[in-house]
Each structure stands twice: as C-alpha cells, then as structure tokens.
Amino acid sequence: MKDLKARIVDLIGMEGPIPIADYMAICLYDPRQGYYTTHDPFGSGGDFITAPEVSQMFGELIGAWVVAAWRALDRPSPPILAEIGPGRGTLMKDMVRTILRIAPELHALADFRLVEVSPRLAEAQADTLRDMPGRFGWHSDIDELPGQPLFIVGNELFDAIPIRQYVRTADGWRERCVTVDNGNLVFVAGAGSLDESLLPPGAADAPHGAIAEIAPARSALMEKIARRLAGDGGAGLFIDYGHLTPAIGDSFQALSRHAYADPLAEPGKADLTTHVDFAALAASARGVGLHAQLATQGDFLLRMGLLERAGRLGAKADLAVRERISQAVERLAGPDQMGELFKIIAVSTRALPPFV
Hints:
Layout: H1 4-15, E1 18-19, H2 20-29, H3 35-38, H4 51-54, H5 56-72, E2 80-84, H6 90-102, H7 104-109, E3 111-115, H8 119-128, E4 135-139, E5 150-155, E6 164-169, E7 172-181, E8 184-193, E9 211-214, H9 216-232, E10 234-243, E11 253-256, E12 259-261, E13 271-273, E14 276-277, H10 278-287, E15 291-296, H11 297-303, H12 306-314, H13 319-333, H14 338-341, E16 342-348
C-alpha cells in the first residue's frame, strides 16, 4: 500500500492543489494512515504532553469547576458529565475522582460520557477508567448524548479541527493550498478567494505574503455544543492553545517527538495544529444566547485554587515530590509556559461567577 504522502501526491495530480483544511483532515483522520488513526500521541513516549498528564491537579481543578457550575445552575438533574476528545481518559479519571470526593451527590446522579471518534483511543480510555466508580458510556458524536442537562469539557479539542488559510497576493486574498513541486509537497496560493470582511482585523493593511486564518468548522462545533446547552441546560469548559484577540498570522505547525516539524514533510506521522481563535468561539456561543467567559489557563487554574491544592499535595511529601509538584505548577500556570499560551472559554446558560 502506498504511504499517505504518495496518496496525497496522487490526489493532487488528479484534482489540483488542495486547501489546507483538506490537507489537515487527510493527515489527521485518514481511516488507514491518519495520525490519530495510527498513533498514540500522548505522553513522554508520544509527540506531546497534555495538561492532564503534567499533573493530576489539572483534572482535579476541572472537576471542581464542574461541581461549582452544577451548583450555580441550581443542580439540574439528572446531569450528563461529558468529555469530548478525551485522549487516554486521564482528565476524566481525575475529574470523576474529584467529583466523588467533594460532591458525592453529583457523582451519584451523573452519567459520565466520553465523545470519541477513534476506536483505538476509546479502548485506552476504557482501560484508564476500568476501576473508577460511576456509570460510563461512549459516543462518537455529541448528537448521541441523552437529552439531559449537560456539563461538557474539552481539552485540546479545537486545535485539531482543520482550518482554512488565506495568503495576501497582488490579486487579493487567495486560499492557501498544498501542491506538488519536484515530488515534494509545497504551499501555493490557490484560485479561491473570499470577502475580506470575514478575515481578522488588520487584513486590509497586511503586506503581501501575510497569512490569515479562519475556522468555520470550529465555530460550527462550538455552535452545535452551544445549541445543545441552550436546549437542555448546563455549561461547558474548553481549554486550548490560542489567542483571545483575532489577528493576522500563520500558526499552522506540526509536532513530532516533542519538537516542531515541517507540516508537509511526513503526512500522517506528525500532529498538525493551529492556534485557536477564542473570540470566534465566544461569538458562536453568544450567538445562540449563552454566556461566555475567557481567560488564560494560568489565571483560571490560580483562581480555582492551584496553589492551595499543590500545598495540600506537598504537605506530607518528601523533597523530591514537592519539587515535582512545584515544577508542575510552573508548567501549568507559568506565564512563559502553558499558563499564558493556553486559554479557556467557559460557556453556560446563565452567567456564572468568574470561575466559581
């Protein structure tokens, strides 16, 4: 069987240059050779480490937020507590353990659901959660979730959804595509254009060669989740790396073995991501009547009690463990690490206290 690069080269030979969105979708989700189909990307042995794997404190504080949001919304019952894009299940495990400890009444009422499209990852999640108390179920789409009040969490979800890129040329903004040159995949300005008003602020003054990104598929998913919350009640919390204010710039990148890589070099063998526009996500949620709060990950975790939790974990630990806890706090909340790079959006059917 041809490798994925050869198949993409053949596709371009038949159909011409393909948009970045199509290239990302093929590389990440091809059923035979896509990255998420064939790789376990998480952890020190994979290509990147997510916050739940840095420390249990991350999932514990997310669980505490779920409890606080449920209580602030008058304890709707019976609730669905869902995670979309749940990785290996580490975040869900830490949330469930926390909910059982601080709100056993919520744990008793709740059904825990994982929304996962990969059968391989679903098996890993089931193994992680095997000994956890609670009622667990799996779905491939949020449309399959029962029609009950919903509290939903997603960590590093939106960055993996393909985006469209446009490049400024002498003829205006053209869709950025992938084509073939001497057997290699390269970027090219395609024929497709769009209304400049749809681009981020600053597009009119951008120089030739500038890159702009829009993510209609991400906005559509947020709107889908928001409509579900608006109809059944509840709240959602989503964490990803990105920006709070839209801007012109190229954020398309590949990660392989914890280092940046050429996104065109080895299709299907590296994770492809782009930064998430949180303002666009907030607009989608507010468009269907939800309230939305935005913050950096560091601010959110500190407000939720990260330092206090770290102190309790380290109180009876030895020096080596306390040092690991301190390093985890810095990595999760430090302004020069995940604390500033990652952002959060909390959405709900009515206004919640700031990160209750």
